[in-house]
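name: query_chain
kind: protein
chains: 1
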Amino acid sequence: MTNRAVVENWSKGKKGKSRHLSTDGMNLFSYTTKIGFTGEDGYKYVYNYTAHKARNRLGCQVDGRYISATTSHHVSMAGRVGSACTPPEE
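structure:
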């Protein structure tokens, strides 16, 4: 399965797995790091594990926390289908 297909499955609440990206339909993982989750409201939220600030759907700046180029790419892909960007978990 391609990374794009994994992200699309996550957006639809379905399972999917590629080499380094996976989802159980509710959460999205880059390697073993959770980079996205489904909120109680049903929206898809993406943790900003990039080196850049991002704007969430309310227009607020969200600081990023860089892990790797691959994870940053996964986050960017997930951001295209996610409802909001949120600060990374502590």
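note: The two ends are 30 Å apart (CA to CA).
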